[in-house]
Amino acid sequence: MRRPLSLLVLSALLPVAALADPAALDVAAPFEIKAADPVLSGDIFLKMDVMETLVNADENGALLPGLSDSWSVSDDKLSWRFHIRPGVTFHDGTALTSDAAATALNWSKSKESILTRAPISSIRAEGDEVEITLTEAFAALPAFLAEYRTGILAPAAYAADGSVVGLIGTGAFKVTRLEPPLTLEAERYDAYWGGAAKVPAVHYTAVTRAETRALMAESGDAELVVNLDPASFARLGSVDSVTVQSVSLPRVLLLKLNAASPFFDTVEERRALSLAIDRDGLAQAVLRYPAAAGQMFPPAMGGWHDEALEPLAYDAEAARAAFAAAGWLPGADGILEQDGQRFEVELLTYPDRPELPLTAAVLEQFFRDVGIAVTINSTNSSEIPAKHTDGTLQLALFARNFALVPDPVGTLMQDYAPTGDWGAMGWDNAGFTAAVKKMAAEGGADEEKSALAATLHAELPVLPIAWYQQTAAISKTVKGIVIDPYERSFGLKSAEFVE
Q: pTM to 2 decimals?
């Protein structure tokens, strides 16, 4: 359980919610809660065990039964049936039925959710099953139904227009207080179908400052703190009251380019920019672990990682020569110019992940070294998709998780087949798009995955910078917390306080 504050400064930095209930297991993370709608903040609700999906996934990404205990597909591959697990109730006491599940999925599909990328013609209840009818074969459908935006809420959670008016899920914890953007509080739901949790309550507090989160871990004001900055991770390793953990993730630190802009509209320019990046040095200096991304997908991602690909290299001199060959020559102040246009660009990033502004500052120096002037704009993460949509984005630095849909083809469909808010911009490869859609429809062998990886490696619609590790500090007053590589759970329903 939480101890009294040992650091007086902390009380001035934390939201009131973080200091509330000494019996609750407190979680601190940098991610703000946008709203009660799973389409907007379902990743947090899934991790906090207040909401669930029809399909689940284990720590290796293998699909498991969730609120659906079994599923099947018709011979023509156009009709899927998901059997609803019996004996499940929502937090308002109503039963989970196929009607309730179908209603939730239909509302999700009507919004900007993962289901808009699937060839779905209808979702309806049929007896104890949800029947999803497709316009074409789509083998990735079960994986899509594991993504957080397909979380199932009770009928009473939705207004007549589909807006979410209450967070009423089926998870091990029942929400008692939700105050976006900072606070979620929940108590144990004793009627949980999987068996009651061991801790009486859980609290989530969004704390954007990495230093504040680290202080919460050190003082005992949060039993679980995730996304530590490298310096805090190293320091907390010597604090007796906590255990620090680091887990490799299928998440990649990426530099998004506007490939339609005059700065990056040729693969030669994009490769020249890649050559200007010392990934090894950056990973060691900023992330403080050897995670330089020599290609898009990390080794843990099975067939998606191709050992045969030549790793993305660092060679500033070769970068300058490549830009010169593309017509970009130094001006009087050393900044590259072409036909009177300076190579001057804005780099968008956001401070929710503490490593991003630091990485942006390092990239600014790398790029200036080869004649590119960069202005860093550290702002809200929502600015990246907004500027993608209005066409004004030039560069953006962010982290992308290829496991939100346990099958990475789901993320590829959203981001690169042919474009997406968090993926390709101004880049279109018809063959790549067709191959992604074929894999989503039929599944794919490792050689097909490697071929897709090779195309991204060759054309560089985005530049991989580093492969991620999730870092966390866990109080020694609790046990059972799990840092899930696929970031679906904090393991709260199995956590318990140590007496």
A: 0.82
